[in-house]
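Lab notebook page, bench 4
Experiment: in silico fold of construct C2
Operator: M.H.
Input chain length: 395 residues
Purpose: comparison with the prior construct
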Amino acid sequence: MTAPDAAELRRLTRELLDGHPPATTDRTDFLKARFDAGLAWVHYPVGLGGLDAPRSLQPVVDAELAAADAPDNDPRRIGIGLGMAAPTVLGYGTDEQKKRFLRPLWAGEEVWCQLFSEPGAGSDLAALSTRAVRDGEDWVVDGQKVWTSSAHLARWAILIARTDPDVPKHRGISYFICDMTDPGVEVRPLRQITGEAEFNEVFLTGVRIPDSHRLGPVGEGWKVAQTTLMNERVSIGGARIPREGGMIGPVAATWRERPELRTHDLHQRLLTLWVEAEVARLTGARLRQQLVAGQPGPEGSGMKLAFARLNQEISALEVELLGGEGLLYSDWTMRRPELVDFTGRDAGYRYLRSKGNSIEGGTSEVLLNIVAERVLGLPAEPRNDKDVAWKDLSR
């Protein structure tokens, strides 16, 4: 079967719109119909939301749907599912897993979260201690995860756990899909400096996960997790945004609207950051084009680094530009939001929220190592624990 070209995709999109008019079709029904038509991710296989078309043609479909005011799947609310879980399920899932999980994930019927980070492992993710022990056709999981976005909303989680403590840390990990409604899963809010509890702690006590919910072979969870992590960094640092999108937009608007706040020094700093933000935006576009050739590589770590640094520098400039107004904070109410919004609310919120950008999705220190070793080809730092069984590591 020949992959559809742009003209064929336009025809199929208009056929979808004719059969399911956005104005009169239930939102979820429209999204399911779009998935079934292969117009969700056009580069995915037929029957799994795609048409085996080139990834570069997705904007053709998106433009037609936007012009018809068709509903989207609220990607900010289900970003973990779209950006991390879906490509991992596609890459390592069984046929049954792909058919079960991808459609409700894309349509936003089921929210996903990511159970990777642990309080005792820090930035060394492979040092995780959450255990999964085989018991017949199930795995019994015990441990604690932290910094889990959307855990209070999620039905499913991607989870890595230690299944063999007798081998080095990277080799004793397996990857699972965890039902967040199962007995033994406890979600506790983790209040942040912004006042919100966007993140959570998750405690797993005797949670039974069927072996049919394992992704990839036993003991090869670290390899599977790399697919998740590479996609995560692209989804955070390389998101598609318009010119003056993201953090630079509000501060540029303030500069134009409030001439009384301007100084020569602030002008020079704003110009520098505006140019850097635009370079980062265009670099992200180039990175997305490279994805047409396959899975994301370590270059996404560089984009994530730039994203964190720019957000923090731009938000700091905005607070300084506003003077006394920048010290105000509108609302420190404890909330558990449904989506992550780096640029929402006021300048004070943006300044505080940006502090987490250099931690979430891989700390900047870890990403610098990835760029140094895997992009620049510099020698790796000595790792004395590389061949030591996890159980024998000091903790």
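Observations: The chain has a mean pLDDT of 92. The two ends are 55 Å apart (CA to CA).
Next step: discuss at group meeting.
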